[in-house]
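Reopening this ticket.

The earlier resolution said the output was attached, but the attachment link was broken on my side. Pasting everything inline this time so it's all in one place.
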Amino acid sequence: MSPQAPQINVTPSRSRRQTRVYLCDRRVMLAIGNDRDSVRERGALQMRRRRNRFFGAMLTVALMPAAQAQQTQRPATIGGRPNFNGIWQALNTANWNLEAHSAQGLEDFWGLGAIAAIPAGKSVIKGDGKIPYLPAALKQRDQNRAAWPASDPEARCFMLGVPRVTYHTMPFQIFQSGGQGNGDLLMVYPFDATNRVINMTDHGEPPVDTWMGKSDGTWEGNVLVVVTTGQNEKSQLDRAGNFHSNQLKVTERFRLLDSTHIQYEATLEDPKTFSRPWTIEMPLYRLIDDNVQVLEHKCVPFADKLLYSDLMHLEPQQKNAPDPKSFRERTQ
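Inline output:
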């Protein structure tokens, strides 16, 4: 006669701890006891693991300030001058419009939905926040704005000019040598693989007008002052049609606040376009990400359809798109 199977009667209750199990076989009771020992061991192991994870997390938090300090700590000066080395970026909407502006949709690009929108932003212009245009220049600004983006050299992948290249949406890198502190500086920008040399000793008038002009630098105490002249009239100041002539003179001031912040100012003088000099100001932030670097943005292939849409027999996306041939002639 085969042994009778143990009978188990389970009475449910509100909690597992209150569940009562009635067993009629001692062997089953022993097995349950062994299972309980195993449960206790597994519980103790889980507690140890949780404790180890807790202390590991606490150690990570404790070490974070030290790791961040390694990223931010560096020599304050080079050759007796403030250390501007690093990758910097403006975090504002100045490249959209230097003046104050509301959020606005781009009707011609409705297929992009909410992506095709201008973000709201404050003015970066000191004083009343307005650009002091001469009457004729203001009309030209309005024409540029109505024909955007085709009217914007940024869309056609041309160098951005000074000061726009500083507050463009992409970060840029400053290279500063040591020596006696009077060596040239190099600024490298990803858009259109642009760069400019800050001439600290070779001062003088540029031989011809170019997209980036000629930048001459001097030190006023701990402030790097850069004067740029010789820019052509083809670049613009932002995506809102703000512009200048080839008479533009830009005086930039870079003042190091600490190891990760620069206070940036640029004064623009152009008697053909503006009624008086005016100044923009903004902070620049140094990127401290691990392995941070400036990546090239060679944009020429992205602009081909805009520049040669007539030759490629493409329908313009803008309702009031200007003749691409006229822009090719203007930028040659």
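Reporter confirms the inline version is readable. The chain has two domains: 1-73, 81-328. The helical segments are 26-72, 135-146, 164-167, 300-307, 324-330.
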